[in-house]
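Hey, can you fold this?
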Amino acid sequence: MKLRYLQIASSICITCCHLGMSHPALASQTYSKMLTKEYVVTKKNVNGTIVDKDGNPLIGVTIFEKGTDNGCITDFNGQYQLSLSNRDAVIVISYVGYKTQELKGDQLVEKIVLEEDAVALDELVVVGYAVQKKKELTGSTSSLKASDKKLSVTTSLDQMMQGNLSGVNITNASGMPGGAVRVSIRGVGSINGSNEPLFVIDGIPVSNSDNSGVNGRFGGSVQNPLSMLNPNDIESIDVLKDAAATAIYGSRATNGVVMVTTKRGKKGQRTIVNLSASYGLQSLPKEIEMADSDLYLTVRNEAVNNYNTQNNLKPGDNLYKTLEVNPRPGQPDTDWIDLITHDQAAVQNYEVSVSSGSEKTRFYSSLGYFDQEGIILTNRFRRYSLRTNVDHDISNAFQTGVSIALSKTINNRVPNDNVGNGIFTRSIEQRPFDVPFKEDGRYMIGGVDIPRHNGIQVLNEQKSKNEWYRVLANAYLTIKLLEGLEYKLSLSGDIRYSNDYLKLTKDHPYGSPKGEITDYRSMMQNYLIDNTLTYTKQIKDFNFTALGGYSMQEINTDASSIVGKDFPSSQFDYINAAGRINSASTTGGKNRLISTFFRLNMGYADRYLFTFSIRADGSSKFADGNQWGTFPSVSGAWRISNESFFPKDGIISDLKLRASWGMTGNQEGIGNYDSRSLANGGHNYNGQDGIAITTLANPDLKWEKSDQTNIGLDLSLFNDRVTVGMDYFIKNTKDLLYDRPLHTTTGFSSITQNIGSMRNTGFEFNVESHNIMNDRFSWDTQFNISTIKNKLTSLIDEKPIPVGNHVLQVGQPIGSFYMYKMDGIYQDNQEVPEKLYAKGVRAGDIKYADKDNDGDLTPADKEIVGKPLPDFFGGLTNRFRYGNFDLTIFNTFSVGNDVYATGMGGIDAVGHNNYGMRKDIAANRWTGPGTNNSIPRAMISTHNTQASTYLLHDGSYFKFKDVTLGYTLPSNLTQKLNISNMRVYLSAQNLWTISSYPGYDPEVSYSVNNSKTMGEDAMTVPQLRTFVCGFNLTF
């Protein structure tokens, strides 16, 4: 059969100018200057190209035969090929942002132009309890769609967010699988309370705390609760940043809100099956070059000789140090990091998802498995995930739906915190000639045979496993009561169960003589009921939406711990075989939050926008009189580009100014009963059982509160080809929470109080540009940069509060580094002040700045020498497409922050101890006047090992975070394979880091849960360099 059609610039515009075959006269009159062509439609096979109005190919357009599951999607060239059951079949063509078309098979043409849907093209942003068009927002938000990351490889929610959202900074505790991260939005918001934003997943506010327990006792790394969420289930991430956007969440929103929306089925969608699989190998991103045995012995014995000579010690004296010798002369040195790590650690990910939608019912379901070996031998993380989202229209007035997500993670942890500074640090500190085993096969013992704990012994004699189970569930019912009036009831639950197991045999460095097992179990149950009423009305050019609601939330926690010792054999894995129970305890808690809220959105003529919101929260965490907090916000926007005076044909296609002010609160990080006195049992006095007060009450404890002012601009250029967003904010936080130390005579160590205030100010900029777009080649760029300045504006008594190597001080950033400032090296003894000379300081030792000019080194000489927070940070993404090939290059950067290399203190001590040494430090030490002014002499002396800027380094970096090359099979090939689409790819992650930092990775902070001590590197496992190959299939 032959089809006649009209060609317009090599295209057919179906929605605007399609000509039916029964109207040749009309066609001739209207388009007399246009040519006609013939296009042959075979009996069953159809093919062609789908483009937009500018002729650019549309990728991923769904084409299917109506009433069947027979369909396909377009490839990177916009091409498709489909076999029809008959020539009269109806073809449905659908694509997000474009009008859906229905055509008979004999109406198809070689090139189809889809017509934009003005309503669908408006980008939607998920805000509290609603969805709004981005162009109508008055608050500050950042958004990330799944389509933005579909060409990159991500394995967790925080990986998706990092570097892609302005104002959002993510720091890793380590590179261990499932390891903890710190997510901060617009800087640090609290000293003692939580700095984590509120995560809302499909309307469920979830906790991001790690409720495992053994990690705190034996050093297993803190786990990242976000690692339980399958990132392939995520449809979009919307970050609410200013108070206008977050105040609707009141007391939980001072650190921002992250709205996570998972995928759902769509109306009229054919059944689509997606299958994805990937496999990769991981390795350490760099090596720290260590001194060999000869250099080690030279420097160590030089330090010993300097010590003995300077102190006039001779053999037989109590303090005399003997020279070290290599017990294995002529034998190769030991690479201790190599002993405890894989050369290549495997990572694999598999997932299948199904989605479909009729006029009444839509569903999405997925099943996923993720398996990642850690670089340390016994470390492994596995995740099993299952999700189902179902929506059903009961009638025009009633809609219901349910979402259920089940996940399980198994994390075989490794010692990281309390076993010294961690197994990684302890291993690199071993001497180069040390070995893990004696000649008879027994372990070398740390502190006896070798200087540090034996990493092989630790790994072999320990069994550590954490299992997490999580259920996220939500059910909703919406009722359209009247025209424009809708009621919604939402019931949600977030249930987590954690089991930490730790077995130490009798041969473990920290084990009991007959072994011990610790079993810790905890459960958290978070239940939420939301009732909302929404009314929407349009009166000529005026429109408004009013939202009112009532919410109730209850969180219950329970935990139990038991420790058994004295096992008859190391073969027993359960506590019931223990000879004695060393300890057993249970604990629990509960807190409730009751809230009412209201929001009003108004607009006039699509030019003037206004939003007002207010929320009142009542929390059981506070005492009477402080339980309720009120959090209002107000914001407005002016869409200048819609004014009559604004030129319509200029380069600016959209221009909007925004301004907002509001208040939010923070109750996270406060214990359930911190405002009350607590008593514990188990105390005995004079033969009588009793209880003792363990926590001092503070009935005056109240919310941390933040007020935030934001001014922003949204700009689109060249018909939305370039979009720009800018924001400037000032955020003041008062009534900061802090565990204030108390004098021992009180009988208590500390009390939680509101002690001060802080300010964060910053500027955010992001731009998205479609640089080149044509049939064969496209290039898109996304760039964001943020700068945030933080300072404490008041403290109780206005006195500085030292915290380890940091300080809290008015006028300075939180967690500022507070230590001695290195001012070079003494080049001769005449330079050394008399008081220091009397203490043994000589030429070649570190010269510290004498702040009080007393010629001595005392705590009064400590000063603020750096900050852990960057001056600016951000991300850069470039996406290229050529034919069926795609290339994504993703970079992240951070500039201006300092990192204190705590974990390098031992290997940079230049012979002070008998630890391994960094080659660069050992070889370039001071050996005489003028030889070096930054590395001290070899000497056993505590003077050179004081906390100082000697170990403080610039933490700035620029990373090639992800480079992915993909290829999409052409449609004529996928048709032969009976699949809709197939893409294969190769990806490299953490490929290259540009930084002057001497450690493994500057992008690290082991204390992610403590803002007071940020920016310290304990030499934990760095983020790993990973090479991955994989494929995505669509049926």
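Oh, and this one too while you're at it.
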Amino acid sequence: MSGVFVFTAHAATPVYVDSAVELSGDGLTPGTAFKTIQKGISAVDDGGTVNVAAGTYAENVTIDKSLTLRGDPGAQTEGIDDAGPSTSAPVLNGTDLSGSAITLSPGVTNVLIEGFEVHNYTDISDGSMGAITSWNTGASNITVQDNFLHDIGWNGVLVGSDDGTLQSNWTVKRNIVSGANYAGIELTNTTYSEVAYNVITIGAGIDSDPDDSGVGIEVAVRDHGTGVTAGTGVSVYDNEIDGDGVVPERAGINILSRAYQAESVALLDGVTIENNTVAGATRGIFVVAEERIGGNAEISSLSIESNTIAENDVGIEVGLQSGSPHENGTYDVAVVSNNIDGNDFGLDNTTGIEVNAANNWWNSINPDFPSIISGNVNYAPWCEDSVCSTTRSSNASINGADTGFLTIGGAITAAEPGDTINVGAGTYNERIVINKPLTLRGATYSVNKNGYTVPVDYAWDSNIESVINNPEPALSTSQVVDIVSDDVVFEGFIVQSLNALPSSANDHLLRLDATTGTADDGEVADNTLDNIVIRNNIIGPNTNLTSRNGTNGRMGLYFASPNYPADERGITNTLVTGNKIFDSNGNGNNVFVWGAAESYGSPANADYTGTVIEDNEIYGSHRSGVEIAGGVDNLVIRNNDIYGNSGLPSDDSANLKYGNGILIIRMDGDKTSVTAMGSASLIIEDNRIHDNEKNGIYFGPINSGHIISGNEIYGNGQDGIRVDLTEQYHGGSWPVYDNISNITAEKNKVYNNNVGAQVIGSPTNGFVLDAVNNWWGTVSSTEVAAKINGDVAYEPYCATSACTSIYAQIPATGSQLDDAEISVPDDATPTDTPSVTFLEETVLAEAGDGGTSTVTLPVGVTVTKTDGGNIDVTLLAAASTTPDSLSGFGTGIVVDSAFQWGIPNIGLTFSEPITLNIFVGTNFSGQVLNIVRSVSGSGDWTSDGIVSPATCAVFNGFCTFTATKASYYATTHVPPSSSGSGGGGGGGGGAAPVVTTPTPVATAPAVAVAAPVATPPAGEVLGVATFRFTKTLRYGSEGEDVTELQNRLTAEGVYSGPITGYFGPLTEAGVKAFQAKYDIEQAGVVGPLTRARLNSAVAAAAPAGQVLGAATTTLSETQIQSILNILVVFEVDQVTIDKVNAALRGQSVR
């Protein structure tokens, strides 16, 4: 229409689709549903949900946004039993259609498709007909679950590309797929994805593609010349796959790397195939790296584990089938712990490359069972039953059984790359060198050694442990165990030296050596020592039992990566976990990382990308638990217990070489250089670093980009965290002030160290140690500040040890709480928080008509909303309110005064009572008034939330009471002659408060009162009152001692509160004032020094020659009124009150 602007609004999520409606509606309700799924997808907001009702939908659907497409998925427990949708699931019917049922558009992310039946999409004329297709899209974070996909011309689920693009984070689970003629589920050029809990019947294959089609699940990389690496993080597990074994069926699970062009480099890396059942197929699992016209194809780190592969023509086939015109590529395949049972042939390897097929059940233990295995297959040891309760091996030379080697070194010499050598319990007095990729496994390889008990004098039980002893001390650099190859696992050993020589001998226990430049790179050539696992070992001691003088032996675990120009460039992708690394008692560290140095001519820092030291127990070193010297990048030190590292009593206690938890410095040869190489991008997280002689973590002056997070650093003799720009570690001062940057320490617990954190020296480049959001062992800002030295930013800091809340200042400058120390929950802000905790006593004063009212919030009180939810703490305020501004009181009630504390019209609750001191006017002095409160100030007045008895006795014009709920407060009374007329602003019908007729209390000037007491024992000198303080008193104390304390503080002029016998916030404030008066630390606790001052003050107050015990005390009007107030609160009769009043004032009592 000309001149008319038409605005179409997107429907809000979710939207609804129902094929049964006659015409499409707006999709916002089931009754106004869209008629087609595509309309629902087009209308739904990004991230919304399209709910599809039962019915049949004949359409091709395109998904071009993030959404949930939901039919009826039925039960969704995590397992295969609930595979498929509900029986009432909507149906996508492709009869007479071409194209796929559901197609994803390029770039789509975050899609969930569940609860559909999809069938009859069989026209494959365009070569891509399927149920769900994502081709050349780069899609990610896609989930396809609980669907029934059947009678499909091409794929049930097709994910892939032919242009080199990758897709990631696909989850395909709990689907039923049958009759998908190419593949039930295919993930080509995909990473970090999983295929799980699916039930698949292999399709019949496609006559035009007989070699590739007829697959249950396929994981592949296909490269047409761009270079593609895929498979990383792809896992296929807990699926059931059945076939009929009829050609052109290819395999139950097909693992494929295919290089189509001469320039193709196709790498399928890191796929795991686990806990699947495959039966009745031509091949159970088929693994092929196929090179066409000279391209490169590789399958790396393929793990086939714990599957049941039964009743297939061939259980597992690795390599091209006979007669293929193409070439085999490169393979790294592990087939372990599977049940390969009842197949016509077990495992056929045509590649010439060894397949590790240990610990499988082959359905036989007869000597001839290897006849169902062909090619280069290491099948030993093999299982002796279907559950693999025991194993047997004919490779005795590797396992140490039968005619095996007497030494570990002999077995290593005989082993092939990739072998696993099992070493039995015993003591092996030898040095070993691991110069090829292999797994070397001791007797207790599966046991984490954290907390492992160390016997006296390291006398291990050789019937249980595999112990490698230093055979004899060396006179030159040597190691007990030396690893110079990539792809090594070393686990389950004790490596120790009990006869080490002084440090010139350089005896180390276990070295990872990247200095040779000749390390065996295994299957993948690189320029670092790579992929080492050091797991579940005991590395230590390195000592000399006859001379433990701090000089014998060097390092425990030694990373050698100085990055000399001819060396490898670091140690990468290496894991050190589950070890006890301890007692390097000589001139060495438990863990030493030797990095790059300017003086070596190193071209760059040593690369430690992917290397992690985690979950180890590291203690007892003469030097440091972990020392990093020189330039090291990207190392992670995580979740270790690092403690008890200390120099000897004979060592120079000032020498920083000894007794640190973690130490990160320049190489000694670089100590004079301001441009030396230092470490970068280290992560130190979740460790316990404690009880070391000197520092928890020590940094030299050249460091950058480190993150220190989640550690518990405590009990160290010097600093929790020290950044030393003068690097006194090397002896003397070697300063660099402008070459340190970006060190962050957060969410750590740093406490009970001599200093929490400090920077020594003044950086000239603006460096500040970023140490916010840590727990420093206290919530006191004064105490925290005392734990910090130098250029350290530490605020805000954690207000709890778990850092569930942080110290913060209210940000509203000039507000009543601007200077209050408070805590809000972590990740909350003062303007949007569920609670606020006061970390110090806070008194808010509000001047009113004739007097100043106050609100006192004690230390630790937490404020929350009565009905939950968040509050704006900056709006918390005290305010005097006029009585006539309130309404909603009962008939006959007179409102004397009003006060508001909190946030208007919001009820707040306090975790403990707060004290309000409201000025009501001197004309009410001596009367008892009722206290009521209301959230709004206009009704629902109640005494609930006022601490019983919800009354106050007015003295000097003030009414004092305590409350646990915040809102408007009013003091009221009912005149004796009240006839029911309204008062205090009138208004009707709130809940009636407690009604008490005002009771007058006589007043008079202060007088001296004689207090006769018993004569004190001979020689005892007492003061004004015969009382000596002998107990420690603190917040929460109560009784006679507190009563006397309050009297004494009143006499000192530092306390004006009531004499209650309870040590609350006012008493604590008085104690602090007393301590300040006498130059005692203001802790607010009556401890030994404060008691001594109180008692000496009493003695000093006695006149010379006076027999003490008959003291004269002058009571102020406030004290007298406080005493009378207590009598009123405890409902003492008026006659008695009058007599007490007279006695206190020195009047005769009648």
